[in-house]
Structures are given as C-alpha cells and as structure tokens.
C-alpha cells in the first residue's frame, strides 16, 4: 500500500463506545427468526446507520419459507425482509459483505437483555451472533469510505432475515449478489480464541412423515398399521449410517406422533440433520436415505414421505479461498494480530457463497462465545479490532486493482 497515512484507520479506535452503544441497541431488539416485526426493526435500524454514509437501503420482501410442521403437514413460514446496500457498482473491484438480522432467541424466550459481565464482556442475545458483526461491518465500511482507495472498490451489503434457519428465502438473493463480486466477507463471530473458520462442513435438514392406519388398539389391533413402529425402524437405520462414511454425521433430532394409548397411531414425524465434508457425500447419503424410505414403503399399509435436502454444501479451502485467507492474515500481521483459521463442522452463508464460486472469509465478526445460549457473550475490545482488520482488508483489495 503506497501511503503511510493511517488516519482513516486509526479513527476506529475512537469509536469503541459508539460501537458498544449501537450493539446494545440492536441486541435488545428481539429478532428471533419467526419474529418478523423484530427482524425488520433491526434492518430498519441498520438502514438508519447506513444512511449516515449516504447509502440508501433497498428493502427486499422474501417469499415465505416452506416447512413441515409437527403434525406432518407442509406449511408456510413468513420471513422478515432483506436489506441491501450498494456503493460504486461500476468500480473495478467488487466486494460482497453479508450479515444476518435474525437470532435463535424467540420473542417469548427469557433471554432478552444485555448486561456487562466479568472482564470487558457483554452478555446478551445475538451480541456475538451476529449483531456484533453488523456493527463491525458498518464501522469498517465507514472508515474505508474515508480512505485513499475508496474509488477503486465498490461494495454491496446483504443483511438477510433467515440465516439461523438455513437462509431458505434469502439463498437466491445471496447467489445473485455473489455473482457480481470478486470477494466475500461474512460477519459470523470468530472462534472464542479469535481464530477464523476455514473449511466448513455442508448441512442437510430432512423431515420424514410416516402414515399408517388407525385402529382400536384392543378390538381391532390387527387392522392397524403403526406409523410409530415404521418411524422407529427408519430412525434406527438412519442413525446406523453414522460411521459408515468418513466425515458424515447423522443426527436424528426430533420425533412427534401418536396419541391415545388405545389407538394404533397412524402418523409420525422425524426431523434429522446431516453434516458432510465433500459434495459427493450428499449423493451417498441421499441414496442411502432413499433406500431406507423405499424399504418402509414396501410394508403393507405404511407410507413414508421425505421432505428437505442439502441447503448448504461444504466449503472447501481451494486456491482462491486460501489466497483470500492469506490476505486477511497479512492485514492482521500489519495490525499486530496473529490470524489463524481452522476447520469447523458448522455452516453459514459462507457456504452459500462458496457454492457459487465466490472466495470468502466468513468469521470476520466479533470474538465471543457460548453462541445460541443464554451465556452468549462478546469481547468488547474485539469490536474496534475487527473493524480495523476488515477496513484494512477492503483497502488491500482495492489496492490490487
């Protein structure tokens, strides 16, 4: 980088208090994925913050997600809106920045408030995943807009409302945005030790609905066909797939069905999650699952119907991904930080971007831990540190043009 002027970057150090205040304001807006009004309030607040940069929000209404209910029936699930911001779409380098507005904490969950805890930490819903990341993103972009390289790089921000449920409505929007960019930055929290996620497993969610035949359990038991027995057999067969293929794990996670003890149950529902390391693992699992379902359907009076699939494929560290990681690591060294990355079984929207060929680093948010629990926390000093890192990464990408 040709200039030694770092005034634009050092200014972030003076914004720690503002970043903290904005984070608290966002975290105390409940935005569980099903709380459409709350999710939209977070998006509207972010739109106000971006307006200060002179960038207006494009608000995208998403189609309802489809999901199988506990009763085995397919139902619509309304989603909040996505918020999109663009600046300099004609610049030679285009970067996509992604964060989500939703959390895993429903409107009736007891975990709703932010509080200071031991050390320089805040405990609160979404402070790490991902509202801290939203503040890091915003602050980094504001700093970059004051840098000497601003005209050489255009950026697009996508804030989606449904990442915590697999991005069912926003996935097409992410694909559309990724096709206009050369690099992606995603603001999921870093690991508790500050390291970044490297390779990520892919994930599939499935719901199997079993139909049998109801009958009086005493008088006409022989006429019934027990859907729960079929479910139990399928569950055991599916769980037995664990250990058959390296890198593949299967988690039968939820069962619902049955009723009165004097009625042969005629319906049951099973939800399961699958994690895979390679794209071909999905084909292997789908074939095995289809064989198990076919075996159940061969039984007299029993029908099994499978819904779902692999929404996120594995993120592999290919050469382009590695090059972007190295650029981030170089920026870290310039700022006195040792940036390392390691593989994880978790997945996020970084998987979606990688699936369409966009190299991305997907844990550029805050350092924190205990995410998805009432102990979730953020290390407050990581807010300005990560913002400086991201701002410098943007400048480095711009300087490459």
Fold blueprint:
Blueprint: H1 7-10, H2 16-27, H3 36-51, E1 58-60, E2 65-68, E3 74-77, E4 82-87, E5 93-100, E6 115-117, E7 121-123, H4 131-144, E8 153-160, H5 171-178, E9 183-186, E10 196-200, E11 202-211, H6 227-239, E12 249-257, E13 267-276, H7 279-297, E14 303-312, H8 319-334, E15 341-344, H9 349-355, E16 360-361, E17 368-369, E18 377-379, H10 382-399
Parallel strand pairs: 5-8, 5-9, 9-16, 10-15
Antiparallel strand pairs: 1-4, 2-3, 4-8, 6-7, 7-18, 11-13, 11-14, 12-13, 17-18
Helix pairs in contact: 2-4, 4-10, 6-7, 8-10
Kindly report how far apart the N and C termini lie: 12 Å
Number of separate structural domains: 2
Provide the β-strand percentage band.
Answer: 15-25%
Assign the structural class, choosing from mainly alpha, mainly beta, alpha/beta, alpha+beta, or little secondary structure.
alpha+beta
Average pLDDT over all residues = 96
Q: Care to count the β-strands?
A: 18
The H-level CATH homologous superfamily of the largest domain, spelled out, is Zn peptidases
- Give, in order, the helices and strands: HHHEEEEEEEHEHEEEHEEHEHEHEEEH
Briefly summarize what is shown.
Helix content is 32%, strand content 24%.
Characterize the structure shown:
The protein has 401 residues and is an alpha+beta fold. The protein folds into 2 domains: 7-200 and 316-399, Aminopeptidase (3-Layer(aba) Sandwich), CATH 3.40.630; 202-312, Alpha-Beta Plaits (2-Layer Sandwich), CATH 3.30.70. The chain has helices spanning 7-10, 16-27, 36-51, 131-144, 171-178, 227-239, 279-297, 319-334, 349-355, 382-399, and strands at residues 58-60, 65-68, 74-77, 82-87, 93-100, 115-117, 121-123, 153-160, 183-186, 196-200, 202-211, 249-257, 267-276, 303-312, 341-344, 360-361, 368-369, 377-379. The strands form 5 sheets. The protein has a 6-stranded mixed sheet with strand order 1-4-8-5-9-16, with helices on both faces. A 4-stranded antiparallel sheet has the order 6-7-18-17, with no helix packed on it. The protein has a 4-stranded antiparallel sheet with strand order 12-13-11-14. Strand 17 and strand 18 (377-379) form a beta hairpin. Helix 4 crosses helix 10 (382-399). The longest helix has 19 residues, at 279-297.
């Amino acid at each position: 980088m040709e200039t030694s002027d770092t005034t634009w970057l050092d200014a972030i150090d003076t914004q720690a208090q503002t970043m903290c205040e904005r984070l608290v304001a966002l975290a105390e807006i409940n935005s569980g994925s099903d709380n459409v009004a709350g999710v939209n309030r977070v998006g509207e607040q972010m739109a106000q913050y971006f307006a200060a940069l002179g960038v207006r929000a494009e608000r995208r209404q998403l189609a309802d997600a489809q999901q199988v209910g506990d009763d085995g029936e397919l139902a619509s699930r309304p989603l909040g809106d996505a918020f999109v911001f663009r600046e300099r779409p004609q610049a030679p380098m285009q970067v996509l920045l992604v964060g989500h507005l939703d959390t895993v904490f429903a409107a009736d969950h007891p975990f709703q408030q932010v509080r200071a805890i031991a050390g320089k930490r805040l405990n609160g819903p979404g402070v790490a995943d991902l509202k801290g990341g939203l503040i890091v993103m915003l602050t980094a972009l504001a700093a970059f807009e004051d840098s000497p390289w601003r005209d050489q790089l255009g950026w697009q921000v996508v804030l989606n409302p449904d990442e915590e449920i697999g991005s069912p409505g926003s996935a097409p929007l992410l694909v559309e945005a990724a096709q206009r960019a050369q690099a992606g930055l995603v603001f999921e929290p870093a690991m508790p030790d500050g390291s970044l996620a490297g390779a990520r497993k892919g994930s599939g969610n499935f719901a199997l609905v079993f139909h049998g035949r109801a009958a009086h359990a005493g008088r006409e038991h022989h006429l019934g066909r027990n859907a729960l027995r079929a479910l139990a057999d399928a569950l055991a067969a599916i769980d037995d797939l664990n250990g058959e293929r390296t890198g593949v794990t299967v988690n039968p996670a939820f069962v619902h069905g049955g009723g009165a003890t004097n009625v042969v149950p005629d319906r049951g529902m099973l939800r399961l999650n699958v994690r895979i390391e390679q794209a071909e693992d999905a084909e292997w699992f789908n074939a095995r699952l289809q064989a198990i379902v076919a075996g159940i359907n061969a039984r007299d009076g029993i029908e099994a119907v499978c819904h779902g699939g692999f929404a996120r494929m594995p993120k592999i560290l290919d050469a382009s991904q590695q090059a972007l990681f190295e650029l981030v690591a170089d920026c870290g060294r310039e700022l006195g930080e040792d940036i390392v990355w390691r593989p994880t079984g978790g997945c996020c929207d970084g998987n979606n971007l990688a699936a369409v060929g966009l190299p991305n680093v997907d844990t550029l948010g805050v350092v924190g831990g205990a995410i998805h629990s009432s102990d979730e926390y953020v290390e407050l000093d990581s807010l300005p540190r990560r913002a400086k890192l991201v701002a410098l990464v943007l400048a480095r990408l711009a300087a490459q043009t």
